[in-house]
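User: Second chain of the day. Same drill as before.
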Amino acid sequence: MPTPPARPWRRWALALPLVLLAAFALGEAAGWAFLRAPLENTLGSRLGRPVALAPDGGAFSLRVLGGLRVQASRLVIGAPDWSKAPHLLDGQDVSLELGWGALWDAWHDETGTTALRVRRLDATRLDVHAERADDGRASWQFGPAPSASSPAPAPLPQFGRLGVADGTLHYTDAAQGTAVEAKLTLAEGNAPDAAAPRFTLSAGGRFQRQPLKLELQSGGLLPFVPDEDTPEAVALKLKATLGRATLAFDGTTTGLLEGGGLNGHFKLQGPSLAAVGDPLRVTLPTTAPFIAEGELQRRGTTWLAQVADATIGRSRVRGTFAYRSGPGQPLLTGQLSGPRLLLADLGPAVGTPVDGAAKRGGGKVLPTRPFDLAALRVMDADVRIALDELNLDTPKLEPLRPMRAHLLLNDGVLELKELDARTAQGSLKGGLSLDGRGEAALWKADVRWAGVLLQQWLRLARKEGEPPWVTGKLNGSAVLQGQGRSTAEILASLQGSVRTSLGGGTLSHLAVEAAGLDLAQTLGVMISGDESLPVNCAVADLEAKAGVLRPRTLVVDATDSVLWMDGTLSLATETMDLRVVVAPRDFSPLALRTPLRVSGPISAPAVTLARNPLTGKVGAALLLALINPLAALLPMLDPGNTEGADSHAAGCQALAARIAARR
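Assistant: Same format as last time:
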């Protein structure tokens, strides 16, 4: 057989891969130093900002086998064009390692929602300026800015190992009013079992436009940067002051900013619950100063808090709560319980000062502090309430023991439903609502009470051995509504009705005679001792219109006399003008029988006598005294008014029957 002719291209085909492999090996061994400038240009073009590798002429090396590994005496990544920061990152003695797959995903991400996964980053010094603009653009985001249809912010990078001997972080968020500067140190990697903290951070500045001071120690950078290669929890200790609120936390975490876990003990205190909730976009009531501690967990987008003990002013409560901050409207659920809650400690939530002592001048006392209606639209809530005692914070009224309710907050409408409370052996049921969807709140109340022992509910002191001023079981209902931007405005527009009746009651004989200005019988009762007069009927039917309460009927039918009241009580002007009239059934030798008038500001009403009837009786007595001193007593003789008393008593019985039937 003849020998085939030689084919040189075959030799080259075999030699070329060897040459390329040798060249690659030499380049890998030499660190591809000649690629520094092309790499800077390529990265700068892709990132849309300047990138400098060892610009001071220091050491530089690049490795590409098994991933991209860059070592440089200095690495500088510039800030975006819209930022005034000197740079995004400026590091010395930087060692950076990324996987090719992570680079491919980040390079081809057109949405800007893929987090860059960094295997390793070490630096002796690192200075970072992270910034988020009003429109959502972030300086660490290298893809397109978030749009109105997809406003999700750029995710932070993820790190496998990170070491920084001396770090400085400047973080600003224009939309949130946040500007924080932090000093940090981080030993390489995360150390869940290390005795000494590997990550320390000291920060100060403003968060959500409030002064911030923060001290943090942990076994790694997990509290701020997620680490998918090290899922174990690391120790975390935190002390923070935000405004006048302080937080201490001691526990473990697997990352906070990207939905990692959290578990530990917390202690929180501040001037008001709202002062803590506002920066976190959690709707909490404005309260008296508080301190609370318990256990805190985070699972994904859900925060779980087991509050073992919370002191709010003079109140003591506890509870279990879950706050979900995922997609859609945030939701707070849970249960609130405890031995005692004072209404005064929640007073600021409805516009009153904490101590309840401040007044507006002119005798006006109704709260005018505007409601924070915008806070009602920040989140939804579903909380069950079971309190051993709700104290009305007045020594004149019996507390509610116990009190149960269901609090719902949905789309700006706050409701207190299924209200069920006990007081003075009676019950209180119904519901309240506050619609905060408009510029002015719409308030509604529909409550009923039954079997309330008046002598126990009203704490009216008397000397030992003397009977109560009034006794009996109180029943009734109130259906009211009002609209306004404060408690005062709502009460000034009040509409509706209040109806109540007293069954099986008694009234102090001394009080009845004193109200009727029966001097003789009052003196006799004082000498012989007071006693309780049976009350045949007692009803009140009040109408509210434009903030003015008027008694349609207000009658007390005692065996001795019948008392009734008319006039007005204005919540709009915070004044009253009421008249109390007594019709006796019996004869009295010495009685003025003049209506009493209660008038003036609600804060300090004045009790006076009606002038015309009193002037007539006194004038007649003086004239008759000129004839005979004993004749001066004739105008004071009172034969009684049985017909008038019986007429009012009949009306009282009819109204009481209607109230009982309606109830």
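The chain has a mean pLDDT of 77.

User: Great, on to the next one.
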